[in-house]
Amino acid sequence: MPEQPTCTGTQGIDLIKQYEGLRLARYLDAVGKPTIGYGHLILPHESFNRPLSESEALALLRRDLRSAELGLRKLVRVAITQQQFDALMSFVFNLGAGRLRSSTLLRYLNAGASSHAADQFLVWNKAGGKPLAGLTRRRQAERKLFLS
What's the CATH number for 10-147? Predict the structure, then answer.
């Protein structure tokens, strides 16, 4: 296996934080799931009975990223830069490793066609079959980071 980054860098964390937003108290996400912090899905065994501090929200984000990083490392079979890893982590954090696993983006990446892979970020800007402005901006930012 070629050398590759193993954890999300500052640029990736900043990108995820920017697009996930920070909510210190429990809320229901767009599909009605209990969520807190930077998009942390509250699991049945977890209870958040008080608002988080910003440092607690960041610690929770870093914990969530660890499992996503492991999933990403298992999928990528070519050497990638830290910026590419970070862009892919934003994608995986938002959509899940399963979506990346079955994507043309990953097929292009693992075939060594990075520029084609970068363009595939832009395909993933829809919810309910309709493009969303926020997702379009996020995918453009991920593509830009991936190419940097």
Answer: 1.10.530.40
